[in-house]
Write a structure and sequence with these properties.
- The structure is a homotetramer.
- By secondary structure, chain A is an alpha/beta fold.
- The first copy, chain A, has one domain: HybD-like (Rossmann fold), CATH 3.40.50.
- Helices cover about 40% and strands about 20% of the residues of chain A.
- In chain A, strands 1, 2, 3, 4, 5, 6, 7, 8 and 9 form a nine-stranded mixed β-sheet that branches.
- In chain A, a hairpin with a 2-residue loop joins strand 1 and strand 2.
- In chain A, helix 4 crosses helix 11.
- Chains in contact: A-B, A-C, A-D, B-C, B-D, C-D.
- Strand 9 of chain A pairs antiparallel with strand 9 of chain D, so a sheet runs across the interface.
Chain lengths: ~300, ~300, ~300, ~300
C-alpha cells in the first residue's frame, strides 16, 4: 500500500530513478520552482501521475505568513501561469472551475478562489462599450460535489463548456500531500488537469483536455495529509535509523493494523487551516488576475470592484 | 410607473376587476391559502404575470416566529406541493435550482434551500442497494448569478437539465413585494416558473417549461420591498384620505423625483432579515423533503443525515 | 415626532439656526470633512446630541466603490483620528469595543472592525522582547448585544476597563441616517462616546468618558435609514413644492398612520449591504491601525500577520 | 514526554492502577456513561487531572450521525447535567462561557454552544411580567481568545461574574483526545472547571470555583488529536507486538525527532469536522436548555424563538 500524494514532486522524490521524467529546478528569490515533465506512459504508470508538465512552487517561510512573501509567491505564480495564458488571444474566454465543498474547510480552496477571480464575461458580452481595449472574458463556476448536489461535477463542467466554449479551462482543487510541512507552503500547476485515482487508465472521468476538448490547467495546494501517512513515514524512518530493514514489511503491516483500528480516514491539518486556505486562495486568485489581465489589470480591477 | 410586485396575489389586489382570472381562498388553521389562475393572455398582459396557477400561503402571525406555526406552514406547503409531485413516479428525478446570491442576505433564499434539500441522486445512481424501495432521485444546484460567475444562469440550468433529464424542475428565488409586512409571512408556489420582467413577451429567457421542456415549478418568498414603493403607497393613501385625487398625478411626479434623488435602488427590509431568510428557507426545504419523499421520509432522512 | 438620525451633521442640517454650535468644513481631495462642536447644553438638548466634537467624513463617489478612494478615505480618517491618539504615549493601552451583532448584517460593523484591528496587547504583555521599540498595547472586544448574551453591554465594557486600565477607549457602531444616499459614503468620529437615546439627560447609561473614567471616542457609519423617515421626507418635500404647508401636520399624521400600519420597524438599506459593511469596516480598521502604530506600522503588521 | 489528553477517562486508561480514583460505568441505551472521581491530590498529580468528578458520555455509533441517536445523547447529557442544576433555585442565574475561537473550526465549539443556548436574563431582568412562573436567568458570553482580543479570557470572565453574580458558571471548550475515533462520539462533563496545563499546581489561572467563587462546571468534546500522538501510539503498539521493549525508549526518541521535523504542531481531525462541531454544539446546547428550563422548557422556547 503505497503512500498517497497528489504532488508530482513527491511521487518523484519517492521514485527518483524512474526513466521518462525530465526535471529541473531554480530558486526565484525565496520561492523554489521545480519543473517536472512525465514524458512516457511507463513513467506515468509508475509515478501514478498522467503524462504532462508539473510546476511546483515552494516557499518554506510561508508557514510564518509574512505579507511580503505572499506578494512574491503571487507574482511568481502569475509568471509561471503566463507561460500558458500568453498563448491566448486578447479576447479569449477562460473558464475557472472551483472544485470542492465550500463548507468543509480543507476542501474549500476551489470555491474560495472562484469567488475572488475577476469575472469579466458579463461585461465583455453585454457591456462591451464599457472597456476601451479587448479584455479576456473570464467566468468562474463552482460545481459543488456529487454528495451535495446529486449531479456529477464533470457533467456540470461539460454543460458549461458546451455553452460558453472557453479557450482555456483552469480547475482549482485541494490536494493531499505526504508531508505536513508542505501544507501552507506549496502550490502545484499542471497541464494535465484533474484526474481521479491519479489519472492512470481511465482518463475519461477526469477534467482534462481529452474529455473537454480544450486545454485544461489545474492548480492545487496541499491542505491535508492522510493520518495513515504519518504512521507510515514514522516507521520508515525508524527502519532507516535502526537498520531494522528486514522487518520493515512486518512493521508496515502492523502500522496498517493500527491505522485501520485507531485512525481510519482521519486527516492531518494545522489548527489554523481556515486562515491558511484563505491566504492560499488569495495568492492563487491574485496570480490568476495578474496573468489573465496582464495588459489591463488596473482597468479591469476598477471595473470589477 | 406602476408599483412592482412579484406576487400574483398583489397584482390581483391592484387590479381586482380584470377578466380572465379565477380566484378562491380558504383558511387552513392559521395559514390562509389563495389560489389564483391567470387563464387568458390579456389578463397575463394586464397583471404582468404569466398564464398559469399561483398558490399563495399567508400567515401574519409568522412575524413573531412561533416554532409551532413554522411546522404548520411547512406541512401546508408540503400538501400544496404534493398536488404537483404526486403525479410523478416513485423513482422520478427532481432538480431543485437555488437561484440568487448566497452572500447577499435578501438574495440568499435559493442557495439556502438547496443546501437543506435531501439530495438522493448519488444514492439512487451509485448505491441503489442501500435502499429497499424506489426513492426519488433529487438533486440540487445553485447556478449563482451572472455578475458573480460570468455565465448566464439559464445556460447552466439548461446544461444540467440536458445531462440529468429530470421529470420536474423546482426553482427557488427571493421575491419583491409591495407591502413590507408580507416579508416574513408569505410564500408563493407557481407552475409558471421564473420569468424575468414578469415574463410577458419574451418567455424564452425564463426558467420555465417552454424553455426547459419539462414541468417547472417556482417557489418564492417576498424578502424586499423597493423603497420607492413605500413613497408611492404613502402618497396614494394621502390622496385617498385628503380627496386630493385631482393632484395625485402631480404628487406622484414629485414622489418620483424624491425617490430618484434620495432613495435610488434602496430596498426596505426588516433588521433581522438574516434570521427570516434562514427560517423561510427551512420551511421550504422541509416542505419539499416531506412532499418528495412522502412514502419513505424517515428512511431517506436517516440515509442522508 | 422628529426625524431620527445618529449623525450630528444631519441634526445640524435640520436645525441650522441654533446657537451654541461651531462648524467648519474643508475638502481634502475627494473627501469632505465637516467639524461640528456642540458647546452649550441648550444646543445639545435641541440637537439631541451630547456636547463635544463631531467630525464627519463624506465621499459621495464611494457609492461606486473605487479602490483608490477607499485608500484615500482610510488615510483621511487616520489623520483625523491622530488628533486624538497622538496625545497618547508610545506604550499607551487602547481598548477597541466592537458594538452590535455579528449575525445581523447592518448591525455587524463593530464586530467586523474589531476582527481586523491589529491586536498587540498579548505581545507587549507576554513577549516584550519580540519588539525593539515601544508599541501601543491594543486590545479589541465584542461585548455582543443584551438580547444575545443576556448581559448588559456596558457591564462587560466596565469589567474590561477595570481589568486592563486603558488610556483610551474607541467604540465602533452602526448608525441610522435620515438619507439613504449616506449609507455607503459617510463616517462619523466623535469624542462624546456612544449615548443611547441621543445621550441627553441620562449619560450614565452611555459608553462615555463620564461613565468609564477614561477618554472615549466613537466611530460610526450610517448603515440604515428607518423606513418611516422615507415617508416623512416624501411628505415634507411635497408640502414644500405644493405650498400645502397649512396641511403638513395633517399629512404627517396620515403618514404616521401609514407607517404604523404598513411599514413598522422596517429599515431601508441597499441590496449589497453585506459588501458595504465589509468595505467600511476595512476602512475603519486600516485607519485605526495606521493611527495607533504611526511610527512602527510595518513592524507591527509583520508581527501580527 | 507523556501522551497528552484532556479526557480523564483516557488518563485513567493510561494509568489503570493508581489509587485515589473511584470509577463506575453504566450503559444507558446506546450511550455509555463512565463516572470517575479523583479523590486525592496524589492521584490528581499522577493523572494530571484536578480532584473532582468527571462524567464521560460515549456513543460510538454517533460517527455515522443518526438523528435519533443525537436526541438520545441530548437527553442523556441533560439528565447528567441536572444532577448539578437541580440544586439551583427556580430563579437562579446561570452564566454560560463559550471558550475558543469562532473562526478556527476545531476550536469553535464553545462559541457555537453559546449562540444556541436560550438566553433569558434580559427577560427576567427587564420583562419579568412576560413570564408566569420563575424562570432561570441564563446568559452566555464568548470571551474570545487572548491572541484575538488582547485581553486575558479569565479577566473578562471575572468581570462578568462580578457584575451579574451567577449561581453557576458552565464553561464549554474543545478538548484534545489521544484517539481519533473519539472525536465525534464523546462528551465530558466535570465539576473541576477548565484548568490550563491540566490544572495541577497553579489552579489560580483556571476558570474554576476557587478562582470565581461560585460552582463551575465544564463541558467539552474531543475535536482534535495531536499528530504526535499518532506517531507515539504507532510505536508503542509496534513495541508491544514485536517484543522490542528494550528499544522502546530509543524508538520513542526517534519518533520525537520525526515529529519535530515533519509534523510539528499539526492536529489530526476528520475531514468533515465542520459538521461534527455543529452537531456536537447542538447536542450540548439542547441538553443545557432542557436541564436549565426543566419545568418550563416550552414556555421559554416560545419566548426566545
Amino acid at each position: 500500500m503505497p503512500i498517497y500524494t497528489d504532488l508530482a514532486l513527491e511521487s518523484r522524490e519517492l521514485n527518483p530513478d524512474i526513466q521518462g521524467v525530465t526535471e529541473d529546478s531554480e530558486q526565484a528569490g525565496r520561492v523554489g520552482i521545480t519543473r517536472i515533465e512525465v514524458t512516457t506512459s511507463e513513467a506515468a504508470q509508475k509515478l501514478q501521475k498522467c503524462m504532462g508538465k508539473y510546476i511546483t512552487l515552494d516557499a518554506p517561510e510561508l508557514s510564518s505568513r509574512p505579507l511580503d512573501l505572499f506578494e512574491e509567491m503571487t507574482h511568481t505564480f502569475a509568471k509561471e501561469l503566463m507561460q500558458f495564458t500568453d498563448r491566448l488571444s486578447d479576447n479569449a474566454t477562460i473558464l475557472v472551475v472551483g472544485l470542492g465543498n465550500r463548507y468543509i474547510t480543507p476542501d474549500s480552496l476551489g470555491p474560495r478562489v472562484a469567488e475572488q477571480v475577476y469575472v469579466t464575461r458579463q461585461i465583455t458580452t453585454y457591456l462591451p462599450d464599457a472597456i476601451d481595449h479587448p479584455v479576456r472574458a473570464v467566468c468562474a463556476v463552482c460545481p459543488g460535489v456529487m454528495g451535495v448536489t446529486g449531479v456529477e461535477t464533470l457533467e456540470i463542467v461539460k454543460g458549461v463548456v458546451r455553452s460558453i466554449q472557453p479557450d482555456l479551462v483552469i480547475a482549482i482543487d485541494s490536494l493531499a500531500s505526504r508531508r505536513a510541512d508542505r501544507i501552507s507552503t506549496t502550490l502545484q500547476l499542471t497541464d494535465t488537469g484533474i484526474n481521479p485515482g491519479s489519472g492512470i487508465g481511465n482518463t475519461r472521468a477526469g477534467i482534462n483536455s481529452e474529455v473537454l476538448g480544450v486545454p485544461v490547467l489545474a492548480v492545487g495546494v496541499p491542505l491535508v495529509v492522510f493520518a495513515s501517512t504519518i504512521a507510515k513515514d514514522t516507521i520508515s524512518m525508524i527502519a532507516d535509523e535502526t537498520g531494522l530493514h528486514k522487518d520493515e514489511e512486518k512493521l508496515l503491516n502492523l502500522a496498517e493494523k493500527v491505522i485501520n483500528e485507531n485512525i481510519g480516514p482521519m486527516i492531518v491539518t494545522p489548527k489554523d487551516i481556515d486562515s491558511i486556505v484563505q491566504d492560499m486562495a488569495k495568492i492563487i486568485a491574485d496570480g490568476m488576475n495578474l496573468a489573465f489581465f496582464k495588459d489591463n489589470y488596473n482597468e479591469v480591477r476598477s471595473l470589477i470592484a
